[in-house]
Write a structure and sequence with these properties.
The protein is an alpha/beta fold. It contains 11 helices and 12 strands. The radius of gyration is 22 Å and the shape is flat. It comes from Paracoccus haematequi.
């Protein structure tokens, strides 16, 4: 048994406990809720100290509740649901109608901000009803212009006329391939001898890579052009193909941590992307509390994530 802490239990730690149970492991839960795995592990250890007992049995990348953990899971799940229902009623009856905001997000950016941003809005700005749409950068620009979304989390646009653009994070690009990879850093010139999978030229990432290569007098000729991130990862997992790719670091951070892929940062100028918050200047204003929460989440990502500047 673990020595019991004399203080009460932190509700946030109980939510983390539920997340680990739901995802079956610490690393998967950390990715899903958007925090660093060591921070999540520490919160669970503190919860175990609060309760006075071990809550998980860890087996490789998996985590299974102990007998006490399973008992806690049954009761916490029930009472957490009841508590969330009370909070929902308070919002409806006492805070008045919600402020509805629709946020568009690029698919490669979404895992960085969600579900952590949803949780922060629910707790700190309950009057905001946040809806999220995932789409590629060009589509998000069209949705902004049409008034279908109020804000977008996207990459720095090449044309900013009529837009209010707030830079949030600079993310480095990496070469990803089945391990082992040769070095911690490579140059674009080193990629010319690889069997590359790259997105097609309609995608901003491909245009960024091509511009950086052109500035360095390099021509990259991909063996395959694939736009689906999941399909790219599937091709990389087949070591017989000998493929490599170029992606934002966060897109392959889980695979790198688990050892199924190796990554190398690319040192050349321009091999990075700027994540921005974008609003159409002619559109409605966004609640300051929401933009503040988005910026706070970006600071957390920079502090805890890999490959951010």
């Amino acid at each position: 048994m673990i020595a019991m802490s004399p203080v009460g239990v932190d509700m946030r730690r109980l939510r983390y406990f539920l997340d680990v149970c739901e995802h079956g492991g610490f690393s998967r839960a950390a990715v899903a809720i958007g925090i660093a795995q060591p921070a999540l592990t520490r919160q669970i250890k503190l919860l175990e100290n609060d309760i006075g007992a071990a809550l998980f049995i860890r087996n490789g990348r998996n985590a299974v509740p102990t007998e006490i953990g399973a008992y806690l899971l049954r009761h916490v799940r029930q009472h957490m649901g009841e508590l969330e229902e009370v909070i929902r009623r308070v919002r409806e009856e006492l805070l008045g109608p919600p402020v509805r905001v629709t946020l568009g997000v690029c698919p490669t950016i979404a895992p960085l901000f969600f579900p952590a941003l949803h949780d922060a809005v629910r707790k700190q700005s309950p009057a905001i009803e946040l809806s999220v749409i995932q789409a590629y950068s060009g589509d998000l620009r069209s949705l902004l212009s049409a008034g279908s979304i109020d804000l977008s989390l996207s990459y720095m646009p090449s044309e900013t006329t009529g837009l209010a653009v707030t830079p949030l994070l600079t993310e480095r690009l990496v070469m990803a391939a089945p391990p082992p990879v040769p070095e911690a850093e490579l140059s674009l010139a080193d990629l010319t001898g690889l069997r590359l999978i790259l997105p097609s030229r309609i995608h901003q990432l491909r245009r960024l890579i091509d511009r950086a290569a052109e500035r360095n007098g390099i021509r990259l000729s991909p063996a395959l052009e694939i736009d689906s991130l999941n399909s790219v990862k599937t091709m990389l997992s087949d070591r017989r193909g000998g493929y490599a790719t170029v992606l934002p670091c966060n897109s392959v951070s889980t695979e790198a941590e688990e050892g199924s892929l190796g990554i190398c940062f690319i040192r050349d100028e321009g091999m990075q992307r700027v994540i921005t918050l974008i609003r159409d200047r002619s559109g409605p204003d966004c609640p300051d509390s929401l933009t503040g929460l988005i910026e706070a989440r970006a600071r957390d990502i920079r502090r805890n994530g890999q490959g951010f500047l």
